[in-house]
């Protein structure tokens, strides 16, 4: 079987690893058949990255779908980039066990990128002063597994600027990626410049606002003007600013549509009009109170 003609462009991480700019989000993809269908559509459309997490409960299904489907596209393990995340329940002393569990669920020898999913610990109050110690312990476990080659790159998700500064001051291995909510209503300027200064790749999640931004009047107007869909406009707005994206869809047609964002450009005016929608609005969880 010949490889697909298109595959997502990549960005270089601070580890030297190449990470595809386009990845398939898999939150809420939990039925094995849905995962298989979505992975098939994604590989066919040129996606080479997949974003899972222990809490999504789909690591095993994702690993299985990839083993079954990679040969269909003339691909092997090394052609895809798998991300997973440490669940908040495993933050702290259970981090090593949690990461090894992700590896065994995915049934992989290595995970390309492993993130601390959330700065807090499940079961502790957000303001609990044990949170920083647990984060540090988790990071040390991830560093150890990185040293063993089991986690090719390590990073964090949902960290605030304060959490990032704390990590940068204490780490032996700096984070490769910060994955956070990012879309026109939440532009995260402080985190973006912090990542830029420290060589951390800033990666967007919920680029479509969980679907809710697809009916925003400005997004609709820009889409109409450039003859693209609202989803493509939102994804192009991010990738044109050099930011990797992880759109989630369970629908093969939308999975393909979301990949067709590398063959057109938005004007500077359109980028600015969309960025002007920033109002600090979150569709997902807010980490700002986590000690
Ligand atoms: N680190 C974290 O804490 C965190 C948090 C949230 C998300 N994430 C990651 O980021 C990924 C994406 O974020 P998300 O799942 O919150 O939401 P999203 O990608 O912003 O939006 C997904 C929603 O949009 C719909 N959709 C997708 N493409 C579409 C299109 N072209 N036209 C119309 N509707 C479309 C999907 O429905 P259908 O499936 O029916 O197409 C789904 O309801 C997640 O799956 C996950 O991998 C990480």
Characterization of the model:
The longest helix has 17 residues. The strands form two sheets. The chain has a seven-stranded parallel beta sheet with strand order 3-4-5-6-7-8-9. The chain has a two-stranded antiparallel ribbon with strand order 1-2. Strand 1 and strand 2 form a beta hairpin. It is globular. Helix 1 runs parallel beside helix 9. The chain is α/β, with parallel strands linked by helices and 291 residues long. Helix content is 38%, strand content 14%. Bound molecules: NADP nicotinamide-adenine-dinucleotide phosphate.
What is the CATH topology classification name? TIM Barrel
- β-strand percent reads 5-15%
How many individual helices?
10
CATH class: Alpha Beta
What characterizes the major β-sheet? Answer: 7 strands, parallel
Topology (SSEs and partners):
Elements: E1 10-12, E2 18-20, E3 24-25, H1 32-45, E4 49-51, H2 59-69, E5 81-86, H3 95-106, E6 111-116, H4 131-147, E7 151-157, H5 161-170, E8 177-181, H6 189-198, E9 201-205, H7 217-226, H8 230-239, H9 252-259, H10 268-275
Parallel strand pairs: 3-4, 4-5, 5-6, 6-7, 7-8, 8-9
Antiparallel strand pairs: 1-2
Bound molecules: NADP nicotinamide-adenine-dinucleotide phosphate (NAP).
